[in-house]
Design a protein that fits this description.
CATH architecture of the largest domain: Orthogonal Bundle
CATH class of the largest domain: Mainly Alpha
Number of domains: 2
Number of strands: 5
Distance between the termini: 63 Å
Shape: elongated
Radius of gyration: 21 Å
Helix content: 40-55%
Length: 190
């Protein structure tokens, strides 16, 4: 860092920057933050700038409970603010950038375990997943052929909506009942 004053200003601006990106539904890397600060003129480029900035970022995250770090499968660290983004949403964003079948399976498992409930397949067409119908179909085909996804099963409601659930957390009969309730029963109940 060029001066202590710049470091102090940067440490104050980092949480705000991360929070704004989280509000926009985005994760941010250290590189993203540094580049933005350089473009704004909040920092000046020096040969050792990046290493100094990494240390400042680490310290800032440690001092701010709402700032979280999450690492993807390629060991790239991302940051977000829990004021405007949940841990679950951040995990979806990390998975979205990797294997789509894994994204779907982990989302289904999370829902089956936490809530417990099956999820409609069409959910994956919408944000934050934003998968195409063809992509979803391809993922389901791939999942059917792989042992690591043996717990992911389908159920179809009486009006033809396909739901997914994990047999590791939901019994098939209960998953069928829940899917029918979510898709048909709730709409018909006063």
């Amino acid at each position: 860092m060029e001066t202590q004053n710049q470091a102090d200003l940067a440490s104050l601006a980092i949480p705000d920057f991360i929070q704004k990106r989280s509000e926009a539904g985005e994760l941010v890397t250290a590189e993203d933050i540094l580049d933005a600060f350089l473009k704004m003129g909040a920092l000046t480029e020096k040969e050792n700038q990046r290493a100094d900035f990494e240390a400042l970022l680490k310290k800032t995250v440690k001092q701010n409970e709402e700032l979280k770090r999450i690492v993807d499968g390629k060991a790239v660290a991302y940051y977000y603010s829990t004021r405007t983004m949940t841990d679950a949403y951040a995990a979806i964003l990390i998975r979205r950038g990797q294997d789509e079948a894994l994204l779907m399976a982990e989302t289904v498992r999370d829902n089956s375990r936490r809530y417990p409930r099956p999820v409609p397949v069409r959910m994956f067409e919408f944000s934050p997943y934003s998968l195409t119908t063809e992509g979803i179909s391809s993922c389901l085909d791939n999942m059917a052929d792989q042992e690591q996804y043996h717990d992911i099963q389908q159920t179809i409601t009486s009006i033809g909506t396909v739901f997914l659930f994990s047999t590791a957390y939901l019994e098939p009969d209960y998953a069928n009942f829940l899917a029918e309730w979510i898709d048909v029963g709730q709409a018909r109940s006063p």
